[in-house]
Amino acid sequence: MKQKYKNYLKNVVVPVLVYGAFTGVVVGTLVYFFKLAAEWLTEVSTEIYLYAQQNLWMIPVVFAAVCVLSVAAYFLQKWAPETKGGGIPRAEGVLRGILTFRWLRTAIAVAVNSWISYFAGLPLGSEGPSVLLGTALGAGVSKLPLSHDSWNRYIMAGGACAGFAVATLSPVTGILFALEEAFKRFTPMIFLMAMSAVLFGTTVSNLWGAALGHQPAALFNVSEFMGQFQMSDIWVPLLLGVFVAVVACAYNLFVFSVGHVYDTKLKKVPQWVRLLVVFVLTAAIGLVAAGGFNGTDAMYGGGALITKLAKNGVQSIAWYVILILLVIRFFTIAFATGSGATGGVFIPMLSIGALLGAASAELFVAMGMDASLYGTVVIISMSAFMGASTRAPLTALVFVVESTWSFSNLLYVGVAVFVSYMLCEVVKVEPLYDVLLERMAEKQNEGKQHKILRLNCVAAAGSFAESKSVRDILWPANTKVGEIVAADSVKRMDDDGEKKINAGDSMTIVVQTYDERRTVAELEDILGSQPQLHGENANDKSAQKQ
């Protein structure tokens, strides 16, 4: 019993309290200043575009500048290819063991390249890069002395969650990100690591904000513009859920199609050309201002646009402008994502949901809905779009509460999220981040041949796996643990009926891998030394090339 407790302290308490907390401090500090710089660059960029709209001599200067920025982005991506595309799907791939990256190079490049994207005005957000930056910083912390390789992905998960929490000012959503989105399962250690990193990261971020005179505020400070739904209004979220499901499915399919075209028909087009086209197209949109439409509303991540739309009941935006913005952002976000430009799609995706909500609110008011509910419909639509597109309904529910500081319409948010989620499930449209991750994995493993290994392993005393259930362990990607033979011939299960591993237990592991040496090393990090898998003792290992 004493040895088991010592192992628990070593492999659970220490990584969670020490490395999780330190990861939170590091991520909370660096992501805070990353986001601060991103906001400043966005403000400066907006002023430049607004000035150019009124001073035509600036137009060629703007186009020349975005061309230079696209070239700079290209060379940074060439130096760190891991920064191409959305930060969240790439971070999820790293956390699941599907993708690899160089942590320091990725951390530097994702920050700088994201700033380039924001300054150019691309319709991409800072939340995805914050998650990838947090993941990379977590990987750096896991290299510190006395750390163990079996903790790496847990520490990186803490960094990713802290990055999300600091970027969105949503700590509980940050914790849920690991459970519902990144790993799609609950385990005690993932939960504890995420909570430790998020709490310390959020606290440090708030301390930096207080030191610099920034008052805490909701991500979308619109609660005063959100009216209270009554049961007689239940038809609104029901109908809205249907609208959202249709557009969310269409959006996912369009993003997938654009990515497929880039990877097949446009495969020979150089990356610098792809970036140049997206940068120039963005600049062209940003220079347009006519008939109540301003191109700057179609640019950037969309956080300011969401707030503006939620206030539309008192600050009128013409319905046709809302539709124009919806169409433009629908296409430009997909093109920017497909091109591989560095930046996040989380808030941009929410802006599409908010625009759809604003358009729907115009219709609902005409159908008899109280106009005071306009802003509420915008926020509910945003949340439902998130839940439907990413298939993370619980995260969507919690996020809308944390991002608006409003609990009053949670039932109606839940109705819209449920309807949109179920309809997308029925038509079998795949989740957005899963397909983007699959695309990244295909590119990483292009030209490689995978193997299917059948390995006979033994859990060593004091190993990370000792006294843990099979499902509580982050195994190498595509791993299946088969029969477990207990060392004392007594099969053991935990309180939930899951298979439990103890010292001396032998097991059969089947794994599909592109890197046999790396996979064996990861298994040894978890189970302890496995001499039978090396050299002349590898008789118990079989590999089948596929």
UniProtKB/TrEMBL annotation:
Top-level taxon in the UniProt lineage: Bacteria
Ribonucleoprotein is among the record's keywords: no
Transmembrane segments: 12-34, 54-76, 103-124, 154-179, 191-214, 234-254, 275-293, 317-338, 345-365, 371-389, 396-423
SUPFAM superfamilies reported in the protein's UniProt record: Clc chloride channel
Gene3D superfamilies per UniProt: Clc chloride channel (1.10.3080.10)
CDD domains on file: EriC (cd01031)
InterPro entries in the record: Cl-channel_core, ClC
Gene Ontology cellular-component annotations: plasma membrane
Molecular function GO terms recorded: voltage-gated chloride channel activity
Protein localization: Membrane
Biased composition range(s): Basic and acidic residues: 537-546
Membrane topology, from the record: Multi-pass membrane protein
Major subcellular site: membrane
This protein's UniProt keywords: Chloride, Ion transport, Membrane, Transmembrane, Transmembrane helix, Transport
Protein name per UniProt: ClC family H(+)/Cl(-) exchange transporter
Organism: Candidatus Fimimonas merdipullorum
